Amino acid sequence: MKKIAFAVFLTLVPLLVPLAVGAQAEKPTIYVVKKGDTLWGLSDRFLRDPFYWPNLWARNQVITNPHLIYPGQRVRIYPDRIEIIDSAAPRATAPAPEQAVQERVFTLSGSEGYLLENELVPTGTILQADHNRLVVGQEDTVYTDIGREMGAQSGDTYSIIKKVKKVHHPESGNFIGYKYLPLGSLELLDLEAKSSRAIITSSFLEISPGDILVPYRKNRREVTLKAAKTNLDGYIIETRMGNITTGMEDIVYLDLGQNQGLEVGNMLYVVRDVPLDKTHVKRPAEPLPQQLLGAVVVVGVAGNTSTALVVKSVETIYLGDKVILIKN
C-alpha cells in the first residue's frame, strides 16, 4: 500500500501560531489536559486541524482508547505535532466514568443509505397515495399491501426504502450490489385483511407508490472514531445522490466492508495518484506521493461494502477516487 508522504499530509495542517518569542519559539509548549479537553479539540486548537488527531493517537502508546483522554495528562505541542508524554489515568484499572473525556462523535439521521450484494426482501409496498398523488411527504396518507393476515396491527411502524440502482465498480466494471436509500417512515392506521391505510411520519426524500417497506429501524444514531486494526485500500464506488463529485458532509459508498476488516468509526484518507510528467524526466522515476484530498468516516458496514461520511475535503472528491485505511 502506498503511504501518504508526510509533507503532503501537512498540507492539511497549518502551522501552529507561535506561542513564544525568540529562542523559545523552537521549544515545545507543555500543556496539561483539563476536564472537557479532547484530542479532537487539542488538534483543532493548536494545529488548526482537528483531523490530525488520529495520527497523534497512533504515535502514542499511552492512549489505549481512541475516544478517551484524561485530565492531568501532559502534552508537548510542536508546530506540526502534539505528543502525549505521560498519563494520569491508572493503567491497572479503568478510570471513573466522570473522568473520561468523550472524543468527537458524528450524529447521523439514518438517511445515509447502503449497498447490498443481494436484493432486499421487503415486508410490503406503498400501493398508492391519497388522491393518487405521485409524490408525498410527511403527514400525507398512503395505502400499503400490509394487512391483518400478515399479523400487522394499527400503530405498527415501518421504514420506507427505495431501491435506486445496480452499482458497478468504477474501475473494474464488476457488479457490486444494489443501492438502497431510506426515504422516511410510516405508521399503519386502518387495516383490512391484505391492505392498510397509513400516515407518513417522517421523510428524508420524495416518497412515491412502489417504494418498499421494511421493519422500522431507529434513524438517529451516533458514531465515534475507532482505531484501524489493519491497512486497507479501496475506492469510492458510489455516492448517495449519484453525483460524480462530492464534498464535506456528503455520503459515499466504499468497496470495503466487514470481510476486509473495516469497522464503523474507522477513518480513511481519500487520495489520488499524481501522474508523472515525463517531459523533463530522462530515466524511470518512483511513483510520486499521492495527493491527499480529504477524509471519510465509516458509518455503516456490510459484507464487502460500507457507507461513509465525508468529514474533510480540501480538494474536489470524485467517484472512483482511492481511499486508504492506516493501521494505528
Keywords:
22 strands; 328 residues; single chain; 3 helices; disordered N terminus; Thrombin, subunit H
Description:
With 328 residues, this protein is mainly beta. The chain folds into three domains: 6-103, no CATH class; 114-219, Beta Barrel (Thrombin, subunit H), CATH 2.40.10; 222-325, Thrombin, subunit H, CATH 2.40.10. The chain is 6% helix and 38% strand. It has three helices and 22 strands. The chain has helices spanning 6-9, 39-47, 53-58, and strands spanning 29-32, 68-69, 74-77, 82-86, 101-102, 105-108, 114-116, 124-129, 141-144, 157-168, 175-191, 196-203, 212-215, 221-224, 232-239, 245-246, 251-254, 267-272, 291-301, 306-313, 317-318, 322-325. The strands form six sheets. A six-stranded antiparallel barrel has the order 8-9-12-11-10-13. A hairpin with a 4-residue loop joins strand 11 and strand 12 (196-203). The longest helix is centred in the N-terminal third of the chain and has 9 residues, at 39-47. The protein is globular. The relative contact order is 0.16.
